[in-house]
Amino acid sequence: MRSFHKLDMASTKWLTTHFLAKSANRIRDLASLPIAPGSKVLDLCCGPGLFIPHLLDLVGPSGHVTGLDQDPISLDAAHQRLKAQPHENWDLRHVSLEEEFTGMDKYDVVLLFNSIGYFPDPFDVIRLIAKQLRSGSVIIIKDFDLESFFFQPRDASMWAKLIVPAKGNNDRDNPVSFDNFLGRKIHTLHSAYQFREHTNDTWTQLMTFPFNQYEQEYLWRNVECLLNQAGRDCPSDVVEYFKRFFFPPKPEFFSYTDAMFVEVEYVTSLRL
Fold it and tell me: How many helices and strands in the chain, by DSSP H and E?
C-alpha cells in the first residue's frame, strides 16, 4: 500500500486528463448553464483554464471571463491555452486564498467547478461570495462524489470494503486534502444564504469499452486516490483486487468488452 504515490488532484496534468476523459460531453453540459451572451463570468479556482474557451463561446465577444487561481503553473498553462482566442475578452489573475473572495460585485456568474471541496467550510465560502454579488447574479457549483461511481464488472463486496475506510478517513487523514464525497452535499448549499431561487441538476458521464487513454487514466487514478485515502484500514485482499483490476501495465477491467463506467457529477445554481 505504501508503494502508491500521492495523487495531486489539483495538478495541471491531472486536471487536463480529467477534462479530456469527459470532453465529449462538456459543450452540451456547459450549454445547459444559466450563462447568457454578454455575461461577466468569474471562474474561481480555474486551474489550467480548461473550461474558459467554452465559457467564452457562451458569453460571446460582448461578455468577459476572468480566471482566478493560486497556482502559477496552472495559470501559465491557462494562458498558453487562451492566447489563441479570437477576442481579448478574458483575463487570468494569480491570487492567494485570502484574496480569492474579494471584488466579486462586478460579476454576473461565479463558477466553482470541482474546487469547493478544497475549502474546510463550503457553506462559509458560499456566504462570502453571495454577500458581494448583485441581485440577479448566479453562483454555479459542480462537484463529484466518489461513492457514486459505478463500474461494471466489479465485485460489489470489494468495492464496499474500499469505500468504507476511504470515507472514514476522508476528514481525518485525507492524503489529497480534498473532500472526495462532497458531490451530493452541494445540493444543500442553497441553505447557506437567502437565495432568491436555486436549481439542482446532474451531469452523467458514460465510458465504455474500448476506453481511450484519458478514460483509463481517469478511472485508475481515482481508484488509486481511494486506496490512498483508505490507507492501512483497507484489507490487503481489497488492495490486491483493485491493483489487478485497474492499475497498469495490464489492468484487467479495461480488457472486458462489456466493461462500463458511469459517473454522476452534481451541479447547483444559486440565484440572488
Answer: 8, 8
Beta bridge partners of 181: 145
Q: In this structure, are residues 263 and 144 in contact, taking their beta carbons and an 8 Å threshold?
A: yes
pLDDT (average), residues 220-241: 93
CATH number, position 57 = 3.40.50.150
pLDDT digits 0-9 by tens, 141-187? 999 999 999 999 999 999 999 999 999 887 665 444 678 899 999 99
The total of structural domains in the chain comes to 1
Inter-CA distances, 79 with 19, 52, 68, 97, Å = 17, 10, 12, 20
Backbone φ, ψ for residue 265 (5° rounding):
-105, 145
- Specify if 215 maps to a domain: yes
DSSP 197-226: EEEEEEEEEEEESSP-HHHHHHHHHHHHHH
pTM: 0.91
